[in-house]
Design a protein that fits this description.
This protein is mainly β and about 170 residues long. The chain has one domain: G protein-activated inward rectifier potassium channel 1 (Immunoglobulin-like, Sandwich). Helix content is about 15%, strand content about 50%. It is built from 2 helices and 12 strands, in the order H-E-E-E-E-E-E-E-E-E-H-E-E-E. About 5% of the residues have low confidence.
């Protein structure tokens, strides 16, 4: 009987430890060299991550339009999202009518589209190949702690593919 009692006790003890929640937290402590001060590591900051894609240039209702879709693919919300769309024709800035460019909060997996309307004569010049057409898109946003991030991209229109192609991408 004694030889059955020990395995049963082991099983009962292991089950009792598995049923209750353990509240053990592991801390890593670093000592700064020379001063002897104990420093706790900084917490890992969850960061929003704004990605832009699907830049388009098209003609609709007698107007030339540019649009860029962007999405928060990060794990936390992006705050004070500010976008800027600049159109360059042969290196000169072209005035555009732009949609709203400030969003207070962009949730994870939330996506938006920024559109700009160009002057009527613009489409013909680009399609005839008389002008080099570039789009600069900037998005600035903050995480929950107020740290600022910026994403800047440059797109150029290709007459052969009839699409905007990404030339430059800088993430801060």
């Amino acid at each position: 009987m004694f030889r059955y009692c020990v395995p049963i006790m082991v099983v009962l003890i292991s089950l009792s430890y598995g049923c209750r929640s353990l509240e053990i937290q592991e801390k890593t402590i670093q000592q700064s060299s020379g001063t002897g001060e104990v420093q706790e590591p900084e917490a890992v900051v969850r960061r929003p991550n704004i990605q832009r894609n699907n830049a388009r240039f098209y003609h609709e209702n007698q107007k030339s339009r540019v649009s860029i879709r962007y999405k928060n693919s990060g794990q936390s919300q992006a705050y004070r999202v500010r976008t800027d769309l600049q159109i360059l024709l042969d290196g000169y800035s072209v005035p555009i009518e732009e949609d709203d460019s400030i969003v207070s909060t962009l949730a994870p997996n939330g996506d938006l589209e920024l559109r700009g309307t160009l002057p009527d004569t613009f489409f013909g010049g680009v399609m005839n190949g008389k002008a080099k057409f570039r789009v600069e898109f900037t998005v600035q946003y903050q995480n929950e702690q107020g740290k600022e991030f910026e994403d800047f991209s440059v797109w150029q229109f290709s007459r052969s593919t009839m699409e905007l192609l990404l030339l430059e991408d800088r993430v801060n």
